[in-house]
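We emphasize that the prediction below concerns an isolated chain of 569 residues; any contacts that depend on oligomerization or on bound cofactors are therefore not represented. The input was used exactly as deposited, without trimming of termini.
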Amino acid sequence: MRSSRDRSDDSALPLIGIYEISKILGATLDLDQALREVLNVLSSYLAMRHGAVVLNDDQGKPVLAAVTGMSLQAARAGALKYPFDAAARVISTSIPMVVPDIAEEPMLEACAGNAEALEDERIAFYCVPIKTTEKTLGALSVERGCDGGAYVVYEHDLRFLTMVATLIGQTIRLHRKVQADREMLMDDAKRLQKKMVEVAPVVPVRGLEDVVGTSPAMASVFAQVQQAAPTKATILLRGESGTGKELIARAVHAQSQRARKPFIKVNCAALSETVLESELFGHEKGAFTGAVAERKGRFELANGGSLFLDEIGEISAGFQAKLLRVLQEGEFERVGGSRTIKVDVRLIAATNRDLESAVAEGSFRADLYYRLNVVPIFLPPLRERSGDIPLLAGYFLDQFNRENGRELRFSPQALAVLGHCYFPGNVRELENCVYRTATMTKGDRIDELDLLCQHDICLSSTLWHKRAAAEAAAPVPPPAVPLVPGTGRVSAPIPVPTGPLSAAPCPAAPRAAEGAGEGDDPDLSERERLIQAMEKCGWVQAKAARMLGLTPRQIGYALKKHNIEVRQL
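Result of the prediction step, given as a token string:
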């Protein structure tokens, strides 16, 4: 006979088990893993063995979702003799089943071989429905051994398993709702993306007056902005740094129904997590040292309008959960406050990070990614719309002239040189190049020789060449081999000299050279092509460099390399 103290110790086990199970179900979004760990807890704390969870499939047929003692794959392959008829009865009637001895129940005859009963030990079978307030989703079943003469209170075990099944049912319902919401968001995003492609852009576009570009890539961006701006959908602007994501965000706001409301912007990368929380949500007086007065956050200030979160990929994991709640519920509390504040804000986010890789690595929440990536708009880098470079250069020069009271203009040769530059810093780098050159030009005309890259002192190009050299030294596939100018044939590129004190010229994207003749022999050697280009240009190195898509320094190095004497005409 067991003592009363032993019974009191055992009575605490179900409470501990419920506590552990609730922690498991709330700690992960992996449903299969959660169900497997719940069964392990039942086995560890309550000496229950051969546990299983079955759920109805799309056809209403019960299938195994989690088991103990073996892999789920092996169990589904037939290693586990599971009484599906008994589970189906429990699911259809929503009435629990208790069998004190499975050996005496014909319905459980198939699974009697699973239990390894000791002498004078009976194996009891419990099966309870997994249900919510709406419907029954499946069943939880366990087997438990007991001595033939022991006092067994089946009602207590049944009540405990019913509570566990209720927790499992609520978790399954939540997981399925999240899955359905994600699929709906993805379908909406695909539908909007398809409509954006079909809509032809209208020029000029209201709100895009400061966005310069007539290339097909920018025309596609304009069309997407026109299609998505009037909706309430969250916009995610993707693209490299310096491609003009903030200008596009302002255009989205200007074309939306919220155009008369505030447009608030925040750079998430410039603030720490605590400061960012105070900036976005505000704080109450006395919430922390220095909080001498109540302060509204950016969400409150943008109520009814649009909030632009730049560099959204840089926020911490802790703040991602707080931001997700605002996006889902539209409500938050100020730092140090308890009053819930509801807002109506249209979110526009931007990032230059690969969020898909961040989600796969676990540094960015998948649920937040799906909330943000409703309507993605990709902004092309400047190298993919090189035809816009002269327009952008002219725009920035006009802006410089207005600010400084000058009347500078570009020569065609200077614009041609700019058009051959790679500009990895995109529009921002081009703007800096124009302002720098305009500032240092003494006359009223900017010629090609006024550009720093023509004197091999462009510091930005030195930076990018060093990065390119580092990437070339890394174990990665080699870059594409450039084409022979004017031929379309593959050729080895002319090497560029490097040195600790030398500044490399601006990197140029491979393109057809200016003035290259269609009759050039593609079988000529590199030395013969150089001589041919120099003869066509009257042995002027600068002209030959433009023809071949190179810089004067590159052409000079190539002439020395092949021991070609420059003729004086």
